[in-house]
Amino acid sequence: VGRGEVMVRVGVIGAGIMGADHVRTVQRSVSGASVVMIADIDLDRAKEAAQAAPEAVTTRDWADVIASPDVDAVVVASHDTTHADVTIASIAAGKPVMCEKPLAPTGAECERVVRAEEEFLVATRAAPLVSVGFMRRFDPGYQEMKAAIAAGVCGVPLMIHCFSRGVRSVRGATTELSITNSAVHEFDVVPWLLGQPVVSASWHAPRVSAMASGQQDPQLMLLHTADGVLTTVESLMNARYGYDVRCEVIGDRGSVALSHGGHIVIDTERTRARSYPADWRMRFADAYRFELQEWIDAIGEGRPPTLASARDGMAAGIIADTVIASMKNGSRTVPVPSCSEPPSRDDRW
Ligand SMILES: NC(=O)c1ccc[n+]([C@@H]2O[C@H](COP(=O)([O-])OP(=O)(O)OC[C@H]3O[C@@H](n4cnc5c(N)ncnc54)[C@H](O)[C@@H]3O)[C@@H](O)[C@H]2O)c1
User: Fold this and answer.
1) Burial (0-12, 13-18, 19+ Cβ within 10 Å), 82
2) Ligand 1 centroid vs 167 CA: distance in angstroms?
3) What is the per-residue pLDDT for 348?
């Protein structure tokens, strides 16, 4: 054990692309933790992920992980629609839980989690249990950007331009899913960068890419924060050329932008070429590692982790609701309900 004190025994629920990646990261790159149990409704996936954690017990049923006395803390990387129930069950068991983003696909479901945690905190006076996997908060580039904005390097921020481009959308992708599952990263990172809540949002779309399959791709979302900054969020799920996440903050004295996510530049034949990652795992590998290390350290030290909280997860979920409401209302600008009064599922539209 790196820090020599506590070994946190981690259970991972959902062993797909992200869950298997978290198992490997915890085993190989995080000190003070070990994966002891892996659940997936597809047991073969759990077993495959367990190759990186040979001591781990595998199961089909996520409730086994929460109930096991051998599991101290839970990582949730199953389907988005399972997140709220699994996270609430972890709270009921008093176990710290790192739920992958989104906390849930709607603001109302996120609110269920926030309420469950609040009731737990009132009853026990313990530390908060829920963290949300908005890992960009741990990406060195985004962290440097946040520090530069706070230091006034680009003066007073006026606009932010976010690009979120993937190689191809997953099977079953829909327009709404790219908002609740992918653009939700921007709904967390923009208020985090500025220290300001998003107060209104709208949704726009050009003609559909020939590479899209059954969904509106690309999409453009506009977010206004309380300080008057306007953010553009481009979401293009079928960019083909590579996984490409960009962010630029333009202020009245200059600009701060993330540098290119690839690792090398090739100069040949009088041409310069830079490589692109194929997906988020390589681009954000450091962020996942730093995020999980902070989560484990905080559990070991008995303090709240600096990861996004359940309320942060709910704030992003409410912005996603608002963007979808604009999409269904002719791209009107829609006010974002304040987090203290999230919309119920029925009056969202
Ligand atoms: N932070 C990030 O950058 C990031 C990146 C990718 C995915 N994610 C999130 O991680 C989660 C997993 O995404 P993925 O790309 O690995 O998807 P995936 O489809 O590859 O994996 C999901 C896994 O969950 C399993 N599963 C579904 N329902 C389950 C249940 N009830 N009990 C147990 N297992 C269940 C599936 O069998 C599958 O193996 C999603 O919530 C996604 O939004 C986050």
Assistant:
1) middle
2) 18
3) 33
